[in-house]
Input
Amino acid sequence: MDQARNGHDSRSIDPAAKEMLRIADREGYATIWERYEQQQPQCSYGQLGTCCRICSMGPCRIDPFGDGPTRGVCGATADTMVARNLARMAAVGSSSHSDHGRKVALLLKAVANGSNTDYHIADPDKLTAVAERLGIPTAGRSTAEIAGDVAAVAIDCFGNQGEEPIVFMEKYMPKKRFQRLRELEETLYRTTGAKTGLLPRAIDREAVDILHRTHFGCDHDPLSLVAQSVRCSLSDGWGGSLIATELQDILLGSPIIRPVKANLGVLEAESVNVVVHGHEPILSAKVVEMAQSPECRAAAEAVGAKRVNVVGLCCTGNEVLLRQGVGMAGNESHSELAIMTGAVDAMVVDVQCIYPALADLASCFHTKFVTTSEQAKIPGALHIQFEEHEADAIATRIIKTAIDAFPNRNKARVYIPQHTSTAIVGFTVEEILKALGGTPQPLIDLIVTGTIKGVAGIVGCNNVKVQQDFFHRTLTEELIKRDILVIGTGCWAIAAAKSGLMDLPARELAGPGLQAVCGQLGIPPVLHMGSCVDCSRMLNLAGALADHLQVDISDLPLVGSAPEWTTEKAVAIGTYFVGSGIPVHLWPLPPILGGPQVTKILTSDAKDVLGGWFFVEEDPKATADRMEQIIMERRAALGI
Ligand code: XCC
Ligand code: SF4
Output
């Protein structure tokens, strides 16, 4: 699959990307594709997961095909190395999502106690709903009191020192799944005599537990390490990410179904263009809000610009797309291409998925590359420190930086590829249930009659090893053709939006059943559920169906996929899907194949134990076949 070697059109299927890559070739701008080529051949030990540099007697490596030593210096086996590396990936991924969730919880606390007045409770109904779910009394109490209690419960999920499962998970996870995990813990203890936990006790604790148990000379047992990876990932899906989603809805407003535009054509030649990139809408939502202020409007006009046009990239783009209807410039592999248009006056980033290469690239243009987070500083960037309690002022300063850069734009160098697609977005669980008339029953009926065979959730990134958006688009088309409703988040959602798959006419690509449903409800066959932390919305939808039917998630005709996955966060997402009972497809290959035992646990044993498991497949059509087959098997088991 060495796309990078086969000329520029093999790098992306996106028409805007193709145009920009031609410019990159002509002008000699370095891109991920070029640097990927320069990295060839990549280390095969790394690809198989069998290298270890956990202590200074190493680095050690094991050739899984039997050449050379079969143990590290300390005696660690290939499986130990693979399992430890995987656990660390899950810990980092979970921590990234969860630390994002923590900041939202702390902000809710600050808003509730009045120490932050730049934000407010934007959706009191959601606050009440979340409070009731958590068992917090609401009757006769003020919004601030309720918000304070919700924030306290959320914050406690991070640092609680008890042994009981985290409250958010206990209250949100469907009953049968929770029971199954608890019974599994008991069974493992009884049959092995060793304690193996699966239900997370606290979000921070499970990540630290992994850092501890993967220290030199601790846990070497592949099963135990995989179990802790599941536990930590569950603390992300049903903890940190869920807290991020729910509390962001409270603070920034719950998304509603609405049309938006996606692709580089959202940049405007006549306007000051600000691209927000990263993950945390606490900043980006403010940038969008402040761009509309009379002060910023006047400043933009004073430099001869039509307006300040804020557009999004990656997941923070998804957040403002969903809540504020902001145009979407693109997914991960579009980040360099956006700067190359010469029309971006500032790219403002917070945390996660930001190529450090953007700093160099921006310096070839008038573009201000602005970092804002203590946790994501990039050499060559302009750092404007973001502080929540001064959010309005700092967001305004950031926009002014873009406005100041605008006159330096070299108009002769500007090239904005004129491609956008319309996407209908904002399919939160609440919005889906509203469209269905308030209960999941109509969706269940459609699944029972086979009008819709099942639901596939697709997530994840762009990866330079896969032609950009090719797997996302092809797999999605193949699934809807088979009457499988596709929902998802992250950079997949952006790929689907750019491809037109989230527009109403896309229903013509769907099978007859799904097509009819889309016609009736006035929805596209492919539903945008948000950013990567909003994978928690998918868990909640699955949970609502499971609880309504009084079954486990693993009984339902649901499947998942991360077909262009890149980051450790994707490892955490895939793992909490599996831990929640959903089979998950992955491509490119995860770095586990050098550990036969770990591979067997994750691709086979997990099936019986957890009801969810991983499978790997390179071809989108074969992937769709396999996903359909799983759905049909689950339907048969349900007797439908
Ligand atoms: Fe992956 Fe999350 Fe990043 Fe996009 S942005 S590259 S994790 S899909 Ni969320
Ligand atoms: Fe080598 Fe063991 Fe040290 Fe890893 S922990 S680097 S396998 S000696």
Residues 279, 314-315, 331-332, 353, 460-461, 490-491, 531-532, 566-567, 569-570 surround FE(4)-NI(1)-S(4) cluster (ligand 1) (CB under 6 Å). The longest strand covers residues 272-277. The mean pLDDT is 97. Residues 102 and 155 are 7 Å apart (CA to CA).
